[in-house]
Specification:
Elements lengths: L2 H4 L3 H4 L13 E3 L2 E3 L1 H30 L15 H4 E5 L6 H11 L2 E7 L6 H13 L3 H6 L3 E7 L12 H11 L4 E5 L7 H4 L3 E5 L4 H14 L7 H11 L3 H12 L8 H5 L1 H16 L5 H10 L4 H15 L3 H24 L5 H13 L29 H13 L4 H16 L3 H11 L3 H5 L3
Parallel strand pairs: 3-6, 3-7, 4-5, 5-6
Antiparallel strand pairs: 1-2, 1-7
């Protein structure tokens, strides 16, 4: 595995260790501008003060309840949800998650993170967080382990029919938690009103361009990159439209390559070149016959490894047909995902080669019975982008909006279940296609999705 592959990604390498080190974005609470660092520090401090008060009162209540009959017993009190949890809302890549981790470092706390887009139902949320939020285990006292900070990322990923019990579960967890909860979302959702009424919602805005330039220049200085012009740097920042994570990824991509003279065309074509490369890479990957070949392909690629993982996952069914082989391939992807989770949580970047071997070589080499693909095989974009969003077309987005007029459905359910079902249904007859199209008031482009 090449040196580039095992090097820590710059977005991790330059993640701030303290809120004091950060150029914090501007934020508003109830329309009023606030100092985010001060607000977050106070939130953590006041939470533990409130927890101490509530726990002391509940101890007295429990002692009282042991001395009286059931009908005279008092109900234990809870931490008000507005003091137990807050929500940071703002576009992806502006540093919301970095703020949470920096805050945890400042208070010497461990971050317990879950992604609401993956943990979408009441049952899975309870299973993932209930015991974590409610109590400290006996080992926490014996080993004097750190306090915890609960991070629920992409809370706006919870919506749709199957998720109706999820938000009440989050609110219930907040009211019973023994640890502070910070939720992050990318945009305002009208169907999260129940949550907005219970917790403070901070609108977090992208950093000003000058702050992003300052951060970028600091990274370039530390990496000893001197051949990137001021106008090139500004072009990178404008191209990413406020996404600091995207800026840093582009800087690493350019900085680790050979830059000669004007790089304007390279900057503007970064995404196009990556897409062209990745189409070829996916096809070639399923032609390999050894792990060495798979490694060589990976070494020659500059495609973001997390993004590439999603491309392989999305295109697996195109290149592997055997159920037994698919089982092996998905198992390898699952283990790779687990390893990457350990890398992120514990900063064990030495495990990165194993991650590559499993999701690239392990998946490609799972094809033993299926003949090597001949001729053209269509490679499709992954439904998830690097920010874990669904990459829907405008037509698909409009389609979902029309369905939501009838009843709520999530993007996940639309892609995985609803659209495939409608295609099968509409494929039975033209009459069915017309009936469904009229019911949903579909236009020609939307009807084309059902054919």
């Amino acid at each position: 595995m090449s040196k580039v592959k095992t090097e820590i990604p710059w977005v991790e390498k330059y993640r701030p260790n303290s809120v004091k080190e950060m150029a914090l974005p501007t934020a508003r609470l109830g329309g009023q501008r606030v100092r985010l660092a001060e607000e977050l520090m106070n939130f953590i401090k006041l939470f533990f003060e409130e927890r101490k008060r509530v726990n002391a009162e509940n101890k007295q209540i429990r002692e009282f309840n042991r001395t009286v009959i059931e009908k005279d017993q008092k109900e234990e009190i809870k931490i008000p949800s507005e003091k137990a949890a807050i929500l940071l809302e703002g576009p992806p890549g502006i540093g919301k998650t970095s703020i949470v981790y920096a805050l945890a470092n400042d208070f010497n706390m461990d971050v317990i993170e879950t992604n609401a887009s993956d943990t979408r139902t009441r049952a899975t949320i309870e299973r993932r967080l209930k015991e974590t939020t409610k109590s400290r285990g006996i080992m926490d006292f014996i080993t004097e382990s750190k306090e915890k900070l609960i991070l629920i990322d992409e809370i706006d990923g919870i919506y749709g029919v199957q998720d109706r019990g999820a938000i009440p579960t989050v609110i219930d967890l907040a009211q019973n938690t023994q640890f502070p909860i910070i939720m992050c979302s990318n945009e305002y959702k009208t169907n999260l009103q129940q949550l907005y009424k219970k917790v403070r919602r901070y609108e977090v805005h992208p950093l000003p361009k000058q702050e992003v330039i300052k951060i970028a220049k600091n990274i370039l200085k530390k990496e000893k990159i001197i051949n990137l012009k001021e106008e090139d740097l500004e072009l990178i920042i404008d191209k990413n439209n406020g996404d600091l994570r995207g800026v840093i990824n582009d800087l690493q991509g350019i900085g680790q390559g050979k830059v000669n003279g004007d790089v304007k065309e390279l900057i503007l074509s970064l995404r196009r070149d990556n897409i062209e490369e990745i189409f070829s890479l996916i096809r070639n990957l399923f032609q390999v016959t050894s792990l060495r070949e798979a490694r060589n392909l990976m070494d020659k690629s500059d495609v973001d490894y997390n993004f590439l993982y999603k491309w392989i996952n999305e295109n697996l069914l195109t290149f592997i047909k055997s159920k037994r082989e698919l089982s092996v391939a998905f198992e390898n992807l699952s283990i790779a995902d687990e390893i990457f989770g350990r890398i992120r949580t514990n900063q064990y970047w030495g495990l990165l080669p194993y991650f590559f071997d499993l999701f690239a070589g392990g998946v490609a080499l799972s094809r033993k019975e299926t003949p090597a693909p001949k001729g053209f095989r269509r490679v499709v974009f992954p439904r998830y982008t690097t920010g874990t969003y669904f990459s829907l077309t405008n037509v698909e987005k409009e389609f979902i909006e029309k369905i939501n007029r009838k009843y709520e459905i999530s993007q996940v359910d639309f892609i995985k279940d609803f659209l495939p079902f409608l295609k099968i249904l509409c494929g039975t007859s033209r009459k069915q296609l017309k009936s469904i199209s009229d019911w949903l008031e579909l236009d020609a482009k939307e009807k084309k999705l059902l054919k």
